[in-house]
Amino acid sequence: MNRDHSNNDAVKQQDEFEDKVVTIKRVTKVVKGGRNMRFSALVVVGDKKGHVGVGIGKSIEIPEAIRKGKEDAMKHLVTVALDENGSVPHDYTSKFSGSSIVFKRAGEGVGIIAGGAVRSVLELAGFKNVRSKILGSNNKKNVVLATLKGLGELKTPEQVAAARGIAVSDLV
């Protein structure tokens, strides 16, 4: 009985997450008998409360690839540090493969200023005011993974102060 209850909690938790398909690619493998066509889907999931994940799904059919991508994204969730006005706690540059993403703090009312792939991740993470810029390669997979890596590495002032063993007021 207790086991069924935990499964219901897991289902409720999954229902809170929204998903967004960033890109769908048709992938072809040439074999002896001809060409094998498959689809690859890059999917972002988030609850708009500081949790976001990215996954890739591959299948012969598009809906199945999206479902697999969503499942993969749920396995790779990252907790994100948000400040009081829904922005990043500090300016940060993240790099993954050939893509670099610059995150800058933004004041209240600025909104999300970001390119398409970065915007999807930031919206589903719960950011309200942030500026970003893609540098280097704009390959969507690398851009999304660089964004996720950077958001995972952001630290709140409380976390930095605790790591240094000082008070938050001494940090500023």
Q: Order of helices and strands, N to C? A: HEEEHEEEEHEHHH
Q: How many beta strands in the DSSP annotation? A: 8
The overall average pLDDT, rounded, is 89
Terminal Cα span: 51 Å
Q: pLDDT under 50 segments (min length 5)? A: 1-12
Strand content is 25-35%
Q: Report the C-alpha radius of gyration, rounded.
A: 19 Å
Number of separate helices:
6
Helix content: 25-40%
Shape annotation: elongated
Sheet bearing the most strands, described? 4 strands, antiparallel
Strand arrangement across the biggest beta sheet: 1-2-3-4
- Derived from helix and strand composition plus strand pairing, the structural class reads alpha+beta
Topology:
Elements: H1 2-16, E1 18-31, E2 34-46, E3 51-59, H2 62-75, E4 77-79, E5 92-96, E6 99-105, E7 112-113, H3 116-125, E8 130-136, H4 140-153, H5 157-164, H6 168-171
Parallel strand pairs: 7-8
Antiparallel strand pairs: 1-2, 2-3, 3-4, 5-6, 6-8
Helix pairs in contact: 3-4
Short description:
The chain has 172 residues and is an alpha+beta fold. The protein is 38% helix and 35% strand. The strands form 2 sheets. A 4-stranded antiparallel sheet has the order 1-2-3-4.
Characterization of the model:
There is one protein chain. Helices cover 38% and strands 35% of the residues. It has helices spanning 2-16, 62-75, 116-125, 140-153, 157-164, 168-171; strands spanning 18-31, 34-46, 51-59, 77-79, 92-96, 99-105, 112-113, 130-136. A hairpin with a 2-residue loop joins strand 5 and strand 6 (99-105). Helix 3 (116-125) packs parallel to helix 4. The longest helix is centred in the first third of the chain and has 15 residues, at 2-16. The model is unreliable at 1-12 (pLDDT under 50).
